[in-house]
Structures are given as structure tokens and as C-alpha cells.
Amino acid sequence: MPIHDWTRLEAGDFHDFRLGWVVGICNALNCEFLPPDYMAMLEPVNGRPIPDVVALSTREPKGEPGGIAIAEAPPTARVIARFERINYAKRADRVVIRHGRGKVVAIIEIVSPGNKDSRNAIRSFVEKAADILNQGVNLLVVDLFPPTPRDPRGIHKAIWDEFGDEPFEVPPGKPLTVASYIGGDMPTAYVESVGVGDPLPSLPIFLSETRYIPAPLEATYQEAWAVFPGMLKAIIDPTDG
Question: Please, are residues 105 and 38 in contact by the beta-carbon 8 Å criterion?
């Protein structure tokens, strides 16, 4: 199913869709994609703004680790960027409160209009993303809204600038972003730029620096769209019957 133009609706309308979508992503991860030693939950892990989906390692994996090995099937993306220098910001002294039932290994964030409607909001989101990566937690960010004056080159560039000033331009006609990050000393980014009418790419959700699972974005988007109110569907997709 192609990505819809969510700028045609009000922020609260997308919030309603987003709630159903993140529940679908969480259910798909638990029922189909995550190895037995992992679980996904819809809840915060610390005092920062609430993430959409949290992936937890419930215990030390026994036997063969789950997921897909990067060495055997390297994930692909339009842009792959890696800092070859050590990210010393991660090594600052800090106290991190971990979830009581497991170690947090990945977080999924679906950007809402409210994350970008003010300088303070975009700053809070970017700082949260950088903090997640600095803690060594992996991150998947989905932004179905075009750049604003506060993130003129897109949400990935805003996040990546927290680690260094590397060039990144939004391709013509592809203003939306799906980006997957490996956190830690040397952050790595896999970035796809997409536009309205494109399918959602299945970028990796990294469980570690060496293993990942595909993100079930397209199928769960379709499921959330199927139960979205018809009168709102008609505004952004009059052909949807």
C-alpha cells in the first residue's frame, strides 16, 4: 500500500492512526519477527518522552542467537553512514535505569506532527534520539511528514548532526524518511528516503551490532489503514473504497 499524504489531515487524526499502527507493529514483532529471547512492549523505559515500541532482551540468549546475521545478509538502504571515530559522548559518566524485566536493545519511534511543530519539540525529539544511541540502544525512526523549517534536510540529518557534520540531502520527490540506527561507540545509519505513493521500506531493526530483524512496517501500516475511519480516508485517498 502506498504511503498517504498525512499533511491533508489534522495532527489528531494521524495520532489516532499512529496508535493503531504501533500496536500492530508490537503485535507483529512478538508473534512473528522477534526471537524467543526477546519481547516488544508499548511503554516508556526512563524519564524521557515515551517511545512507541520498545524491544527487550528478556534474558541472555541460549544457543544460536536469533535474528539475521549482518555478515550473512547485509541490510541495504539508499544511504549507509557510519562514524569511523569513537563517539566519546557515549562514554560520559551517566546513570541509566534499565527496565526491570530485561535489557532494552531497540526502540521504534514514529514521528508525529507534534514532534516537529516547534523548535523546542524538534530539539527534544533529536536529543532523545541521540541519547538512545549514546546508551548503545538501537533505533528505528519513521517520519511520514516532510521537512519543516526546523528540520530543513529531514529528521535523519537533524539526528545525525548530533554526532558529526556529514552531508545529507533530501532527494527530489522523496521528502519522507525511514532510518535505522545501530547505537554505541560508532553509530551506523541505514536511511531510505521515500515519498507519498511509495511503499514503506523494510529496514532492519537491529537487535545487536551483528544481528537484526526486518521491520514489519508495510503490513502493519495496511492493517491500521484498514480500520481507519472511512470519512478520514476519503480526505487523503478519495479512491479508497
Answer: yes
Angle, CA of 222, 201 and 150, to the nearest 5°: 100
Q: Which three cell numbers stand for residue 100?
A: 526491570
CA gap 170, 240 in Å, rounded: 29
Instruction: Name the nearest CA neighbour of 108 among 159, 52, 70.
Output: 52
Domain boundaries, the chain: 6-59+67-233
CA dist 139 and 186 (Å) reads 14
> What's the rounded Cα separation, in Å, for the pair 148 and 201?
22
> Strand 188-194 vs strand 79-82: parallel, antiparallel, or unpaired?
antiparallel
User: Phi/psi class of residue 47: alpha, beta or left (left: φ > 0; alpha: ψ in -120 to 50)?
Assistant: alpha
- Residue 184 CA: distances (Å) to CA of 132, 151, 206: 9, 24, 12
The model's pTM: 0.85
Tens-digit pLDDT profile for residues 56-92: 665 555 555 678 888 788 787 766 676 555 444 443 3
Q: What's the pLDDT tens digit per position in 28-54?
A: 999 999 888 888 888 654 444 445 667
CA pair distance 37, 95, nearest whole angstrom = 25
